[in-house]
Write a structure and sequence with these properties.
- With 207 residues, this protein is of the alpha/beta class.
């Protein structure tokens, strides 16, 4: 299946050819191919169980897969990507700022003042010293998304990115995706609802 673009063709950034994905020994995605231009966003849609999350996790390196996956004509590497899934990936007993500082320390390419800037962008400055385990679902989602702007990476993999976000949070995310794509970044997002920033659509389970 091929993603269909509504925009003029751009330089290809992320390519997948013949992608098959296994989960718990069962193949959940078979022989999938698509290309995403630099500066573009691909939305993956489909019914529950169609493989949306499995594709993102395979691209992130969390699930076994076959096929050729590349970025800018080179093999895809972990350092190319940020993945934000259903789980926040944050340590519950640490504060928001401690979590982001930890990420900045272990991920290559952290920007100077990246943590402070990310908290400001995502509107979580007042939560800086709050334990993650005490946050609301929306606050937790914003704090998890903040990693996207702590360390610059060209590919964002977002699983149901609007989950738990209020309209203000959705606006922040849409603005950050636009800025990321303007800089030549690539976004792959799964969603059950329309994403206003999607350039291409890949519908799983649709003939």
């Amino acid at each position: 299946m091929q993603g269909q673009s509504n925009h003029e063709t751009k330089r290809i950034g992320l390519t997948c050819q013949g992608l098959s994905v296994w989960r718990n020994g069962t193949r959940v995605v078979r022989d999938l191919s698509f290309e995403i231009g630099c500066g573009q966003t691909l939305m993956i849609a489909g019914p529950n169980g169609s493989g949306k999350t499995s594709i993102l996790r395979a691209l992130a390196g969390f699930l076994a897969c076959d096929g050729d996956i590349g970025f800018n004509a080179a093999p895809l590497a972990a350092t190319h990507m940020h993945y934000v899934g259903h789980q926040s990936g944050l340590k519950q007993h640490l504060s928001v700022i401690e979590n982001l500082q930890f990420m900045a320390a272990i991920l290559a390419g952290a920007r100077p003042n990246g943590v402070a800037e990310a908290m400001d962008i995502w509107g979580v400055v007042r939560l800086a010293h709050s334990a993650v385990g005490e946050l609301s679902a929306g606050q937790l989602r914003r704090s998890a998304m903040a990693r996207l702007t702590v360390v610059a990476r060209p590919i964002w993999l977002l699983d149901e990115p609007f989950t738990a976000l209020d309209q203000a949070g959705r606006d922040i995310l849409s603005a950050q995706v636009a800025a990321h794509c303007s800089a030549g970044g690539v976004v792959v997002a799964s969603s059950h609802e329309p994403l206003p920033f999607a350039d291409q659509h890949l519908n799983l389970g649709v003939v």
